[in-house]
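Q: What would this chain look like folded?
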Amino acid sequence: MGTRCQATLLMTASTERSALICIDALNAMQQPRCSPLYSVMNMANTLESSRQAWVIRGQSRSRRAMSWPTWFARNTGEKPMLYLHTAASSAQLRALSRETRQRGILCNDNETRPSPSLPLWLASNPHCTPYDPASGEEARAVVLAALQALYVDGEPGFYYLALHDQYDGPGLSPQDRDHALRGMYRVRRSYTSELKVRLLGAGRAFEEVVHAAQLLETDWNVAAQLWSCPSYTRLAREAEAAQRWNRLHTLAPKRSCHLRDCLAGDGAPVVAVTGYPQPIVDQLAGYVDARFVALGAGSVETSPPSRYWVAVLALKALADDGRIEVEQVEAALHRYHLR
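A: My prediction, written as structure tokens:
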């Protein structure tokens, strides 16, 4: 097995042909609205039926690389790979990514409650494009984009999806789908009050953000613009690249980025929420031209973040901007029994 796993997989015309057949099969399938986990499982079944992709359902929790089912690695032309696994630590995922030659679409059921090091390693790994989809539609868009990028366009690296079975979310327009792949798209498109905030959420945490928006509107007459952010890391990487380019090309027109384009022209506070450690959203802080609040697991004695803390931190941001009295924040803390 060791010798076979070290073999270099060859990108050929047959690889591209297999990927295109997979994309056609997924586009033709009937996809009911469902959670990210079941959306990917349905796609895995379709890909298996097509016989044009490796679909590996790995359940090993061992850190030893040889414990991972990597039987697909052989000295033949490469085929698209969808790997469904349960890795709880960065050490496990490092072992898996080495065995797969850092190629493929790796999907992790986040019921495994990954260690804090795992999302941080994913965010810092230049070979990885990580996503935390909130809905089945987002997960479907990411898998299709990954097939195109990795196996048709021949881009290097691997895509990573954190999957959950809690929220199905709204449907996506073609523009929403494109924006979701770039990192974020707007779900609620208008304000209904002069007091306003912008709430960003990813993955399972997005459902809490939706409920927080309802609390803010019902209890405090604050309107919230909602943004789903399937990849904070992709947003941060693009923003950093644009900033670096602008520093090196002082005479050229400035480059923007998707994050700034989405949040431009509005001074309302931004509260960004993730179910992972707060540094995942801290990546955005330097690129948001408004008051920015990051909320992650454990950052306010709650794991994952609750709708009540999201609402309170939104009110605190408004108070810090002088838009409401700080007493309202105190009232919210008592109302939601947060202290």
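The radius of gyration is 21 Å.
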